[in-house]
Each structure stands twice: as C-alpha cells, then as structure tokens.
Write a structure and sequence with these properties.
globular; 6 helices; Rossmann fold; 5-stranded parallel sheet; alpha/beta
Length: 164
C-alpha cells in the first residue's frame, strides 16, 4: 500500500524551509501531495496557479526531484477532505520555531476532531533554514535584497518579475 502525505500551505512563495520538509517527508512516504491553499482569507502575492507553477519549477526544474513521488495541486476544501480524496491519513506540517507550535498544535487538534483517523506529522527544516519565512523573503526582495540563500533560482525569477 502506498503511503501518501498531504503537505498543505500557501507557498507564497516556496522557500528552502518548505523544501526541507518535502525532502524529509520523501524519506518517510511514497508520495507527497503539495497542496497549495486557495482560500480567500489571505492576501496572496501570487494567485494559486502562479504558486503551483512556482512550486513545480522549484521542485522539478531547479532541484530535479522525482515527479512520480510529488504532486502539486491547489485546493479550497478542508485539509481533512483533501486527505480523504487522496486516501491519506497524514497531514505533513513544518515547524520553524516555538512560535509556530501553538498555532500548529491547535490546527492539528481541529483536524483530528474533524477526522479522528488523520494524524499530523511535524517535521523541522534544517537549522540553517528554520528562520526563513515566505513573508521575510517577499520583504527582502521588495527592498532589492539578495534571497539566494532562502529559495530557488526560478522562485527568485518569479519574485523579481512581480516586483519590477
């Protein structure tokens, strides 16, 4: 039986922190569904189609990760509904710092209440990537800073076009 994990997020844009979680997840699961959230309650820099394309290019063009092991989709449903659709009982989430934990803990608890057979697995990115956030990456590039240490080449190209 194939073990599938759902990795939901906004990925606005994807960073090396996200990528660390995906790479670590690939050591545990046969397939990871990178689920790009398209709910209306966020003010995104990129629309969902752009974010999906950015993720695809980062993972498959820049990093040459295995396309058979990773799917990139967008979704507007509950994550638990997405789990049912992809026959997964695992939600993969990344933790950077203690400040992430309270929100993630509450989210995992709510998901568990919605579907008691779904578990949330927390993975930490490598130490050098734990400080990275999409918000900081956008701020740095907006102010013409260098973000090569934070995200992939194609992601940087998308960001530069957005801020030109």
């Amino acid at each position: 039986m194939i073990k599938v994990a759902i990795y939901p997020g906004t990925f606005d844009p994807i960073t090396f922190g996200h990528i660390d979680v995906i790479k670590k997840g690939l050591k545990i699961f046969d397939k990871i569904v990178v689920a790009v959230s398209d709910v209306d309650n966020k003010n995104y820099l990129f629309d969902s189609d752009e974010r999906k394309e950015i993720v695809r290019r980062a993972l498959f063009k820049d990093l040459k990760l295995n396309k058979k092991m990773i799917s990139v989709i967008s979704f507007t449903s509950l994550t638990t509904d997405l789990c049912r659709k992809y026959k997964s009982n695992i939600i993969l989430r990344g933790l950077r710092a203690v400040s992430d934990f309270e929100y993630e803990f509450q989210l995992a608890g709510m998901n568990r209440k919605l579907s008691n057979n779904i578990e949330t697995l927390f993975l930490m990115s490598d130490v050098e990537n734990q400080i990275i956030s999409s918000k900081f990456v956008k701020e740095i590039i907006k102010l013409k800073g260098d973000i090569k240490k934070f995200t992939t080449k194609s992601t940087i190209e998308f960001l530069k076009k957005k801020y030109e």
